[in-house]
Amino acid sequence: MSQDHKKEAPVAAIGSPSSTEELALDVMDAASGRRLVGSLVSFGLTQEGRDVCVTGQVTGIEMRNRWHELDVMKNIIKTDGTIPFLSGRQDVRTATLSPGAVFSRASADEPWSHEVLGSLPPAGTPVMRLTQEKLDELMEAQRQDLFYVGRAYGDDGVSLPMYVKHFGDPRRGGQGEAYHSLVVGKTGSGKSTLAKFLLAGYARHEDMAILVVDPKGEFADEIAGYAVGDSGLPFRGILKGLGRPARRYGITQVRLEGYELFEDVLASLGLDRDLNIRGAENKAELATAITEIIRESSFTLDSCRPRECFEEILRRIADEDDGYVKRIYKSKEPQDALREEIEKILAKPGHRIWATWDFLGFLFEKGDGTRQTIGQIVRSIMASPSGERPLVVLDLSTPGNRRDMEDLGDRFIALREQDEERDLFTESLQKKVIYRIVSDMRRLSETIVSQRLREGSRENVNTLVVFEEAHRYAPRQVAADDEDGKKLKAKLIEAVRETRKFGLGWFFVDQTIGGLDKEIVQQVRCSYVGYGLSMGEELNSVREMVGGDQRDVGLYRSFKDPASYGRPSEKRFPWMAFGPVSPMAANHPLFFNAFSGTDFAEFNRLPVDGTDRPLRLPPQSVAARRGKGGGNVKAESLSELPEDILG
Ligand SMILES: Nc1ncnc2c1ncn2[C@@H]1O[C@H](COP(=O)(O)OP(=O)(O)OP(=O)(O)O)[C@@H](O)[C@H]1O
Ligand SMILES: [Mg+2]
């Protein structure tokens, strides 16, 4: 038995019956005053002449007093509440422990290495609380691989070591292939925050590239330097400290391509509404008509922005002989009305449709060639050389993209002012853009890896893609008429299934497991479940995922809602992690409370570059709109304003 087990009093002793899968623990009286559930414990034994240290997390504890179970005694209890000399004194506390990670070494001056438990200690073997000191000793050999995101669920004194490995070369600390991850939990459970912790962990590896698909704009705000949420995590400062180039792309910073996307954006922008066309079928016909005309004409998608082009398109639509109007409307009355509408528009240079067209044309315009297409962005992420590998955030949020439009100056002011309630950046547009990203990534990862192989390199693309709100793109059920949705989901499933070996891993963040496609959930290897999935179907999914041990599920259900704490500083953000997430993991989940943002940076000794406060405040109108939208961007306080704000 190892020496260090003598320092502290044991919390329990190995009891009976025990097996290598499940050990009975007799809890010592002296330990009954301290929290044991959720704590990490360890005990020692000798196996094949080696010192073995078995660790585990206590998931439940039971108290029995057999006197209290006797009917005759219940009569005394009924009146007195306790039985003299028996209540309390004859209580027996037992706990069960499923062994987690097991370590062994040949002698005390060797580092510990992973081991498989193949024997059992004698009954009465002392079980100790695992201290940080002991844990550090067990981890000595793999210290450089470790990363910390929180403390053991039942013991604030111990931080849980985790693995956040990149997907690249194992000789450079990588996993050699990608793995997929999932972070789930109710809104407010701290998913995005944990995801940022893990991302910061990945960002330490200069060999890894990261893309965040950001439908809420939260990551985009983070890297732009806005304070997001209350965790105190200096995300931007960490990225800067690590020397990690971070780039944000809004939709207006991407050059869109392709007729299909064009038709969709055209509808998203409300060009059909500007023409007073209402029915879904009629709208679709209009979109087809416009793209057909462009295909047949001398101009192209990336050069059709000028007003004359749209004039020509409108004239062709209205033209009797071409018959487009007849395709849009079957009956005469609306046909005439549409022709009239077009006449009116052609005679009215200030009509709002010109602004709509201008913006549409801008999104697809080639311009001076500086705006990158999705394909180019994807390639620049995946094929970037080590040391220059970026963290790219694709901001698909409405507030973020509206702000971009404002940043473009007065060019599109007419469009903005005409119709505030118009959804310029609809979900359907998001889906099309994401489809393009996923299919480009899927294809390019394979192309890049096979090209490298031919050149004699075995380097994979070592890229992580983070998806917030994953159910929007890969829901368990897609509406029967949602063709885009079906296509996107199929593409995502295909990617998740096939890109692992090319070093492309997917990281999903979502509020439920049940809302997410089943196959995707099955392909996930590392999962983190936060507060809030303790009922019905969701609980079943959790149970399925972690292997169905009642005690694990029970401990998970004991999680308290972070929102239920009085003071913000007392808040806890509990997590259950499953899969090869930690050197302490075995076939059971691990339980921890996430660090606060500041503790996180400190504990991992992350370099935080605190030099730049955001110098440019967001324009008032944007701040107001963000406030209205209920996003979690915190307003700047007066004390944070730069001193020279008034010049
Ligand atoms: N570990 C933590 N320590 C301190 N504060 C935290 C922690 N995790 C989350 N928070 C804070 O709690 C709030 C909610 O967290 P977060 O936005 O990460 O939750 P979420 O699960 O992503 O919610 P949603 O589903 O609405 O996106 C934020 O203000 C965040 O800063
Ligand atoms: Mg979130």
Q: How do the helices and strands line up, and which of them pair or pack?
A:
Blueprint: E1 12-14, E2 23-27, E3 40-47, E4 50-57, E5 60-64, H1 71-80, E6 92-97, E7 102-105, E8 113-115, E9 126-129, H2 132-139, E10 146-152, E11 159-163, E12 181-184, H3 191-203, E13 209-214, H4 218-224, H5 235-241, E14 246-249, E15 254-255, H6 259-268, H7 271-274, H8 280-296, H9 307-318, H10 324-328, H11 332-346, H12 352-364, E16 372-373, H13 374-382, E17 391-395, H14 398-407, H15 413-418, H16 427-454, E18 463-468, H17 483-498, E19 504-510, H18 518-523, E20 526-530, H19 536-546, H20 550-557, E21 574-578, E22 590-594, H21 597-603, H22 620-629
Parallel strand pairs: 12-19, 12-20, 13-17, 13-18, 14-17, 15-16, 18-19
Antiparallel strand pairs: 1-2, 1-9, 2-6, 3-4, 3-9, 4-7, 5-6, 7-8, 10-11, 10-22, 20-21, 21-22
Helix pairs in contact: 6-8, 6-16, 9-11, 13-16, 16-17
The protein binds adenosine-5'-triphosphate and magnesium ion.
Residues 191-192 line the site of magnesium ion.
